[in-house]
Amino acid sequence: MNLGMQKVEALDAGHFVRVEWEDGSESRYPCVWLRDNCQCPRCFLHSARARRLVFEDLDVNIVVKEVALADRKKISITWPDEHASEYEAEWLKKRCFSEEARAEMREDLFLPELRYWGSDLQLPEIPFEEIMCNDESMYQWLSTLKKVGIVLLTGAATRQGELVKLGHRIGFLRLTFYGPTWQVQDKADANNVAYTTGKLCFHTDYPVLQHPPGVQFLHCIKQTAAGGESEVVDGFHVSNKLKKQNPQAYQILSSTAVDYTDVGVDYCDFAVQCKQRIIDVDSRGQAVRINYNNATRDTVFDIPVEKVRPFYAALKEFDGLLNSAEHKFTYKLKPGDIVTFDNWRVLHGRQSYQSGSEVTRHLEGAYADWDVVMSRLRLLRKRVLNRD
């Protein structure tokens, strides 16, 4: 960005500053925002990129005393208490309050673009060793994971510990009551339905936590000859279908607090309770997280009795859409495969397989939070695309 300013002036009795750009466009900045974001060393700690100005010292009705344009590349402001602030043109342009500029900043910071899919999914694949040693491949993996919601990493060693390496490559893994990593295999007296050979219905992991893990990794170390196929479905795509098909069902699932429970012993003993809406939505009513795990849905249901059957009817319709041939994608992991997916968006399941005298199927699992993944993605994006 190399855009200069050709005019600057105060408006509305000094409550706004108007900048006219060389391309003819203009931006308006509230003076309270400009004072709040003064970049001088007294108001801003540049080594930490953090505000020093305490909010109690901010006058929300502040106006400019003087505003001037310096060499078309920055503006200088003098405030009523004689404090002086300077703002660079590029810094201001990025923070313009127009809808277009705000949308561009949202895209740059949060990468909100999503690619929906159903049974026609072309599962993206990247070699594990490439993402471990190449930033471009790492960026491709994480950006695809954010957009599509699922990526298969191939060719990892068939031993425990590969997910720990992957976690270090991102930043760090999420510790839960099942440990930093956990072993999915048939176990006697299983403390989780995943540790059996039975069919696993479509679910997201850990809705019993207030903040469920954002990303899940499953590393195939050993695979059974018959059965054990994995299934995935795009929960956001299906939610959009439900919203169009039955708005009332969507409203019920996005407003009803469902009780979840998980009690047992693993990494340590635990007794976890939580209330979650099956479909979490943002201020626009758009799904931003699916919280659905039939195995850990509690027998306690804290809603009025007359609302119970309508809830079940709504959930039945949603579950039917999840399981329709049109929406679900089936594949079978091979030893050395690591499937990585968005646990807030992609629901996963497993077909049953036969138990034996020894372990015939072994996956190692781990989680990471989206905050950690997005942090790494932003750093890689800046490095790979040479972004400022």
Automatic annotation (TrEMBL):
Cofactor(s) listed: Fe(2+); L-ascorbate
Domain called TauD/TfdA-like: residue spans: 120-367
Catalytic activity: 4-(trimethylamino)butanoate + 2-oxoglutarate + O2 = carnitine + succinate + CO2
GO cellular component labels: mitochondrion
SUPFAM superfamilies, sorted: Clavaminate synthase-like
Keywords: Carnitine biosynthesis, Dioxygenase, Iron, Metal-binding, Oxidoreductase
GO biological process terms on file: carnitine biosynthetic process
Pathway: Amine and polyamine biosynthesis; carnitine biosynthesis
MF GO annotations: gamma-butyrobetaine dioxygenase activity; iron ion binding
Domain Gamma-butyrobetaine hydroxylase-like N-terminal: 13-92
Pfam families: GBBH-like_N, TauD
InterPro entries from the UniProt entry: AlphaKG_dependent_hydroxylases (IPR050411), GBBH-like (IPR012775), GBBH-like_N (IPR010376), GBBH-like_N_sf (IPR038492), TauD-like_sf (IPR042098), TauD/TfdA-like (IPR003819)
Top-rank lineage group of the source organism: Eukaryota
EC number: 1.14.11.1
Stored NCBIfam families: carnitine_bodg
Entry function: Catalyzes the formation of L-carnitine from gamma-butyrobetaine.
Record-stated family: Belongs to the gamma-BBH/TMLD family.
Annotated protein name in UniProt: gamma-butyrobetaine dioxygenase
